[in-house]
Each structure stands twice: as C-alpha cells, then as structure tokens.
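Lab notebook, design round three. We kept the backbone fixed and only want residue identities now. Task for the bench partner: fill in a sequence for the structure below.
Input structure tokens:
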C-alpha cells in the first residue's frame, strides 16, 4: 500500500511536468518560427529599397556621362579646358564620381579631374601622359556602348568601377572619356542611410565583394536578390536582419520549463506532505520539546481555558509548577503568576481571532525570567501561548545606551582614522576629531573649508558621484590634502550612500583613513618587486615585461613602415625599400659571468655578492638611459641596446669585454680574474616571442663559453645547430641515460631545529631535504646547476621529479628502522611538474601505494613557480594535502615577495631565501627582512626554515629571531642518502 502511494507521489508530478513542458516548448518553437519569418520579410523589403536606390543612382550617372559626350563641341581650340570645366560642374552637381579622365585620339591620358581633396580615387594626375592601358581599360573606337571594368586599388584599398567610351564613334579624333567611381565610398554612404546597423548585407560583382557588413548565417532568414545593374555592372545583393539579443521563443521555453519544474515540485511536495503528515506531527512534537520557548496549549472550559499541553521548557520557565498549573484555569494561572491583566488579552484573541504579542515585566518568583515576551494565537478551537525569556534583550538596551557613549569616545580617539557625514551635494557637515590628528585642522574648520585643502582628487570623481546618486557604494578612493603644517597627506575615503524610503539620496556617510605611509611603503615594495636587491638592477620579471613591450613596439612600427611602403609604381617601391632598411631594430645581450663559481667556492657567498655588485657597476658604464640592464639570475645579466644596429653594439661590447678582462677582483687578499661570455641576438619584426629570444641568446652565450669565454657570439637565423655546444650535449646525453638507467644519485642535507635546546635536538625526529646529483661515468657526479637548467629547457624536469619521488620512497620503504626516526623528508618539485596534471596523478598514486606515511613527506615548491601559475599551484597543493602530505614554499622573498600569495597558498613551511640569511649578521636590512618574513609566517600559522646558514654566528641570530629551522653548511653538509640511512640504522642497532 505504501509503495503504491509513494509511486504516485513521484509519478503524478512527473507526468504533469512532461505535459507542461510539451506545451511551453511547442509555444516557444512557434514563436521562434514566426520571428524568423518576420526577419526575412523585413530584410526582403529593405533589400528591394536598396536595389531601387542603387539603380536610380547608377542610371543618373550613366546618363550624365552620355550627356557629356553628346555635348562635346565639334570645334574647340582647347578641349582639355572645356572638359575640365564640364567635368567639375558635373561632379559638383552629382556626387559619387571619384574622377573623370579625358584621353585623346592616340590613347594618351590628357587630363584627370577629381573632386575635392581627400577623395579616394583609382585615377589621379600622376597618370597624365600615360597610355590608356594604365587605367586597366581597352575601349574600342567604334563601340556605341560603354566599356567598364572593376579594379581594386592597393593604395586606396577600395574597389573602383571605371566606365569609358569614345566621345563620338563616328568622329574618333575627339578621343575618349573615362569615369571612375569609388564603390566602397558610394555604397557606404547610401547603405548607411538606407539600411542602418540592424542589417547584415553583402554586395558582390562576380567573385569580388564590393561591400559587406556583419556576418550572415544561413538560418532561413537570408534574402538574396537577382543580379541588377549598378554603374553598368551586374551585382547581387544579399541581406539579413541581425539577430535580436532578445529571443522570445527561447525565453518562453526556458521560463516554461522552470515554471513546469516549479509547479511539479510544489505538487510533489504537497503529495509528499500529505503522505508523511503523521511523521511531520511527530517531528513537530520533537521540535517543540527542543524549543527554547515555553509552548502552552489551552482548550475552552466553560467561561475559561484549561491547560492541556506544555513542552519541557515550560517546566524550567515556571520552576517545575506545570502540574500545579494544569489544575488551574487560565484566569487562576494569571493571578498565580502575578500577571492577571494578561488573561483578558488572551481571552480577546479567542473572541476576535487577532493574535496578541506583548512584553511583561515579572515581579513574581514563580517565573524565572525578569522580562518575558507573550504571544497568543488561535489554534482551531484552542489558543496557543508562547512565552520567551527576553531578559537579556532588555538588558542589552541599557548596554546599548552605554555603548553609544563609548562609541563616541572611541570615534573621537581613532588613530589615523575619522568618520564623516556629507550632504547629498558632497559637502562635509560632520567629521570626528581624528581629522585633527591627521591634517591638523579642527573638525569645524575642515567642514567649512575642505576644498581649500584639497591638492588632488581622483580622476573618476564624476563616476563615483554618479554611483552614489544611484544608491551604489563605490570603491574606496584617494584624495590628496595639504596639512596645516604644509605637508602632503593622502586620505582614503569609503563612502556609503544613505537613502530615504523613496530611494532618494539624503546623505553620505563613511570612514576615512590616512594611507600616506602605506602608499609610500607600496612604492618601495613595487621598486623592490621590480629590482634586484643585491645590485639594484631590474630583476627577471621586470625585464621580461619590458622586453615584451619592446617587441610589441618593434612589430607595430615595422608594420606601419611596411604599409607606408606599399605601392605599384617604381618610385614608391624605392620608398618602401628605404622604409625596410630603416625598420626599428634593437640588440639583446645575454651575459654569463666566467669563473664566478670559483669565487663563491673559494671565499663564500659574501664574496660572490661583492663581485656581482662591482661587475654591475662596470656594466652600467656601457649603457645609456634608453638601454635596459637587468640581473636575471645568479650570475646572469641581460642588456638590451635599444634602436641600435648590430655593428655599433658589437663595438660597444668590444670595449665592455676589454673592461671586464682588465678588472681584478680582490677579496681577503685573494686575487681573481673574471670574464663574461655574451650571447648576442638582434631584435626585429621577425622575432617570435620573448621566450624564444631569451632562449636563443642563452644558447649563443653557451656557445661563447665553449669558444673560450670572455667573448661574444652572435646568434643568427642559421645558427640553430650551434645553440648547444659539445659539453652541453654530453650533459644532455648523460641526463637521458640517467632517466633510462637510474643514473641519478640521491643526496640529503639536514634541516635542523633552531628553537629546540641542543641536548634535546639529538632526540628530535630527523628532518632533511633530498638533493640530486647526476652520475656521469666519465666525469663523476654532475652538479644540479648544470643538468637542471638543461632538463628544464628540454622539457625533462617533470620526469626527473617523478624519478626523485619514486626512488626516495623506495629508499624509505626499504629502511623502516630509519623511517621511524624521520620527521619530514623534503622533496623539491619544479614549475613544470606543478602545472602537469598527469605528473600530479602519478605522484598521488605512488603516495597512496607506499608504506611511507604521507605526513612524513613534504614537497617544496619555489615562490616564483607558484606565483607564475597560482591556480595550478593551489590545485596541486590541495590534492596532495588531502592525502596527508605537507608543503614548503622555497626561496621565499627572492621573487615576488608578496605576502598576499603566501596567504593564498596552503603551505606548512616558509623557507626564507638564502640571499637574506647569509649576511644577516652584518646587514641590518637583511636582518629586518628575515624578521618580517618570520613574524608574518608565524602569524599565519606557518613554520619557517632559514637557508644558507653559513656559520654559527648566523645560526645564533636566527635562534634569537625564533626561526624554527635552519639549513646550511654550518649545520650539516650534503651527504648521500644511502649513507644517512645506514648511519641511522647502525645508530638504532647500537
């Protein structure tokens, strides 16, 4: 029985939905077809009007040409003057001619008459003296009819119709007349007046499209007229009314389906509600028992009412006296509770049916609250009372009055903020006392003379006020003021429109704050984000942005030069060749310092930093204000010599290389000779992209190194095979072999806790980072600094990352005793892997199939790769965090240095870039930077790791700053992972 009822609950609404849907869909389809018919009829009518107008225009012009020939004088001493006068008169009376040409009996062009300046024409005075063939016509001498041709002019980029005939076939000595018409101009004017923007159309003469507007779709509304004459040429016209953005048929279908679904859903709910009424009653009883209001039901009893139902909360509210109250009438209960007047009000509800609601102060000890809210409603023949404890609300009113006074004191004491009220005309009528602390003006003085103190208003002031007038809250905006002390301040306003019940603006309220310091700090941060902190040069990101701008400018200017050089005449071809020779060119130089690693390895990173600063000073001497100089990597620089040819740049590079070769670097009584290998490439209109350009220059730089260092190598289009030198090929081959034959070797370096006492740290779970070395049989281990850039350049880095993940887990799986003592194992992932969905799935599958707990694995991603593809990074992190892995943000501070990105990335650790850590003992700016990064990371609940801890003094400073972990040679040197695992196993066995 219940199954049949339940079947009807779903079947009947489904049938109703199908019937209503069929009705609405049918109606929508009918309306759509009717709309298509109306559009086709409208297009047909307008097309006929266009045809008539074009035929009338054509007939008048052809007739005028015949009249000009018929009126040709038999004896005229100067036919050119006569022709010029008549043709100018004709073009003045009838618009549409682009030119009229007179050709003598020998077929030589004698005169060309054109309308006012600015008219596009296929025939001009430059053709005087040329033969008739220069016009593209061959007019027969004895023909009575007009000869015509359609020609396209590259110079005007328009189609032109030329009409010509012998003036008198019987008297050929009079010569010929040729009339030219600019088709695009004529059709553009006439169709613009007749058709308007609501139609798409196309006019064709043969295979040539003379004029078109919009894109036509063959949906049954396209109208095509039979060919008709236009200036002695057969043309066809196709026209279509544009689609209306409002599609009533589809709207009816969508709304009808929604309404059908809604009606069916309501019907279903009603049926379901009827079936489950008993369940609902039980739920109602449960809800009433869980209610925080006392619910009482009374039934009539003679002239009074008797309590029949009361929920459990009533026992608490009436201090357990519900059973006693059930023996009393409602009038007796009112007197028992000390509120006899409420009985009359409850009785009135039963008589007139109008609900009653009131607040009552309680003085009796029979009721727990001090204030109650009583609601009385009819419940059939019964009445229902709801009693709520509102003691806290009435207490809150008193607290509100007290808080208003506290609010006024708070507003007047706000630091660097003030609240304000403006009229609908944006005149200040109230500001709090905070304005005096910011600008020095008293509130009443500021309200009276605010406009005197304004130095600059936002450019979008008009739009802001329009938005406020519409009742919309605008975005915060900045106003510059001059303070009483003469100093400039920037105040940010956040306006809120105040509307009356009619929706009219009555006032504007808001809060303002002093953002002078924030803006100054933002400018400083912007500078730091675009400049290398060590050398002060542009960094990689700023350089890439400016390089893309240079490429856009080069392509735009060269394209303009090419268009200016297009012509069919030999003179203009020479001009075009001159343009092509003067196309805008620039030269980019990719510089890699020679023997820089020797300085770093011999004297440490402080010496390397000092070398980079001094070398950047040398580079600055060989660039001017128009050139770009940037540091794009550790010891890599880029220079763009703007608007200079390759020959002049090479002369400057010769001087630069000479200066570098003469430069001597001295550090701790050690003398070093350095050099610079330079890859040179020209930037022109054929340059494909910034990435291609940098890659080619980088390859040329490697070639310069291979040829002997401290020299330049010019990359040319045919040098693709020279991009990778022999040594690079060997490393690349070793990389491929290692991927096939497990030729890598895993190393590791400890990450030591800094906030744990030394006697406890020995028992602290071991944290370490996985490092990678390439094992080449001939030359031993290859540094990651050599093979990782090659792997990234050749798209192999994701395979390398997967190898490291797989083999790290294999090592840990094979050594469970070591795994018990491990806290975290950090594995680096490249930017390529971060955006590779397939690599992500492989890592997830490997982690799910391993015996290594996921919480012991921490993946490290660099700040720059995460920011470059923020969406992919967030997806990658969330997927692996869901299975238990943790994440660290590596090299933080060296790239974007944006704490906004840190807030948006769900990482557990922040690794402070070593460029800030290694000089922290001596450089106060680095000390402040590390302090700020550490404090903000801690405030976000993230732990910090300091890289490049080079000595014990650095470690002690980091401990004082409460940095959580440290990593560097002073704490632990890299060692093979196999040795670390064996050492831990032996230690455990001892």
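Proposed sequence:
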């Amino acid at each position: 029985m219940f199954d049949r009822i339940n079947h009807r609950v779903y079947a009947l609404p489904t049938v109703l939905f199908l019937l209503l849907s069929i009705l609405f869909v049918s109606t929508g389809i009918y309306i759509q077809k009717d709309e298509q018919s109306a559009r086709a009829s409208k297009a047909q009518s307008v097309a006929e009007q266009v045809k008539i107008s074009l035929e009338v225009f054509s007939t008048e012009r052809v007739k005028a040409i015949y009249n000009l020939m018929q009126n040709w004088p038999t004896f005229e001493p100067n036919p050119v003057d006569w022709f010029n006068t008549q043709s100018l008169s004709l073009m003045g009376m009838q618009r549409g001619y682009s030119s009229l040409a007179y050709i003598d009996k020998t077929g030589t062009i004698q005169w060309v008459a054109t309308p006012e300046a600015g008219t596009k024409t296929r025939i001009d005075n430059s053709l005087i003296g040329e033969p008739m063939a220069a016009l593209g016509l061959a007019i027969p001498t004895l023909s009575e009819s007009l000869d015509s041709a359609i020609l396209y002019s590259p110079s005007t980029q328009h189609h032109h119709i030329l009409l010509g005939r012998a003036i008198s076939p019987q008297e050929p000595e009079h010569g010929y007349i040729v009339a030219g018409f600019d088709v695009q101009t004529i059709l553009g004017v006439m169709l613009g007046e007749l058709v308007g923007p609501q139609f798409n159309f196309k006019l064709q003469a043969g295979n040539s499209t003379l004029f078109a507007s919009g894109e036509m779709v063959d949906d049954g509304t396209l109208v095509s007229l039979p060919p008709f004459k236009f200036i002695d040429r057969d043309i066809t016209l196709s026209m279509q009314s544009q689609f209306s953005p409002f599609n009533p048929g589809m709207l009816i279908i969508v709304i009808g389906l929604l309404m059908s679904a809604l009606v069916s859903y309501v019907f279903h709910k009603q049926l379901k509600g009827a079936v489950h009424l008993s369940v609902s009653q039980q739920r109602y009883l449960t809800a009433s028992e869980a209610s925080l209001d006392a619910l009482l039901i009374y039934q009539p009893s003679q002239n009074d009412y008797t309590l029949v139902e009361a929920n459990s909360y009533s026992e608490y509210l009436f201090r357990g006296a519900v059973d006693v109250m059930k023996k009393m009438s409602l009038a007796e209960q009112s007197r028992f509770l000390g509120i006899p007047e409420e009985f009359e009000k409850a009785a009135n509800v039963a008589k007139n049916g109008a609900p009653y609601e009131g607040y009552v102060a309680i003085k009796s000890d029979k009721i727990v609250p001090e204030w109650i809210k009583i609601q009385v409603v009819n419940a059939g023949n019964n009445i229902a009372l709801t009693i709520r404890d509102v003691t806290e609300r009435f207490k809150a009113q008193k607290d509100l009055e007290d808080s208003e006074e506290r609010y006024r004191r708070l507003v007047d004491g706000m630091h660097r903020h003030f609240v304000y009220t403006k009229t609908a005309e944006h005149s200040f009528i109230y500001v709090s006392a905070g304005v005096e602390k910011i600008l020095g003006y008293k509130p009443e003085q500021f309200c009276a003379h605010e406009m005197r103190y304004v130095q600059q208003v936002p450019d979008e002031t008009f739009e802001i006020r329009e938005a406020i007038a519409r009742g919309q809250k605008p975005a915060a905006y900045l106003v510059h003021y001059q303070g009483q002390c003469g100093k400039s301040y920037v105040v940010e306003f956040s306006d809120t429109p105040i509307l009356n019940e009619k929706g009219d603006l009555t006032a504007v309220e808001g809060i303002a704050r002093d953002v002078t310091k924030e803006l100054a700090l933002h400018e400083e941060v912007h500078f730091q984000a675009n400049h290398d902190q060590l050398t002060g040069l542009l960094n990689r990101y700023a350089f890439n942005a400016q390089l893309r701008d240079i490429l856009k400018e080069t392509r735009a200017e060269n394209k303009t030069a090419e268009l200016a050089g297009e012509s069919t005449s030999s003179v203009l071809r020479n001009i075009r060749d001159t343009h092509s020779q003067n196309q805008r060119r620039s030269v980019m130089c990719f510089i890699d310092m020679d023997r820089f690693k020797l300085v770093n390895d011999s004297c440490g990173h402080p010496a390397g930093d000092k070398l980079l600063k001094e070398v950047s000073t040398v580079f600055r001497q060989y660039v001017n204000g128009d050139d770009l100089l940037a540091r794009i990597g550790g010891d890599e620089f880029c220079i763009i010599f703007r608007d200079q040819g390759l020959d002049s740049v090479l002369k400057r590079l010769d001087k630069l290389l000479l200066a570098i070769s003469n430069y001597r670097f001295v550090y701790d009584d050690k003398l070093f000779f350095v050099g610079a290998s330079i890859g040179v490439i020209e930037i022109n209109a054929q340059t494909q992209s910034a990435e291609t350009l940098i890659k080619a220059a980088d390859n040329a730089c490697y070639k310069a190194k291979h040829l002997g260092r401290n020299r330049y190598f010019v990359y040319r289009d045919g040098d693709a095979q020279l991009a990778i030198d022999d040594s690079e090929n060997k490393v690349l081959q070793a990389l491929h072999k290692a991927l096939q034959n497990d030729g890598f070797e895993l190393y590791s370096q400890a990450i030591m806790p800094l906030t744990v006492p030394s006697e406890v740290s020995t028992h602290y779970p071991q944290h370490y980072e996985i490092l990678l070395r390439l094992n080449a049989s001939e030359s031993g281990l290859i540094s990651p600094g050599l093979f990782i850039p090659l792997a990234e350049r050749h798209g192999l880095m994701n395979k390398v990352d997967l190898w490291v993940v797989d083999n790290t887990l294999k090592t840990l799986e094979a050594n469970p005793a070591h795994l018990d003592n491990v806290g975290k194992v950090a594995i680096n992932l490249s930017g390529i892997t971060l955006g590779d969905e397939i690599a992500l799935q492989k890592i997830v599958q490997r982690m799910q199939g391993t015996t290594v707990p996921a919480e012991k694995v921490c993946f490290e991603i660099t700040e720059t790769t995460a920011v470059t593809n923020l969406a992919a990074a967030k997806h990658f992190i969330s997927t692996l965090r869901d299975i238990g892995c943790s994440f660290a943000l590596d090299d933080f501070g060296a790239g974007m240095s944006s704490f906004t990105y840190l807030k948006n990335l769900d990482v557990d650790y922040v690794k402070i870039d070593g460029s800030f850590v290694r000089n922290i003992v001596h450089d106060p700016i680095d000390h402040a930077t590390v302090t700020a990064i550490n404090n903000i990371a801690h405030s976000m609940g993230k732990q910090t790791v300091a890289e490049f801890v080079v000595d014990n003094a650095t470690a002690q400073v980091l401990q004082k700053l409460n940095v959580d972990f440290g990593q560097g040679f002073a704490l632990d040197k890299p060692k093979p992972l196999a040795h670390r695992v064996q050492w831990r196993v032996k230690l455990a066995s001892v």
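Keep this in mind before ordering anything: The chain is about 45% helix and 25% strand.
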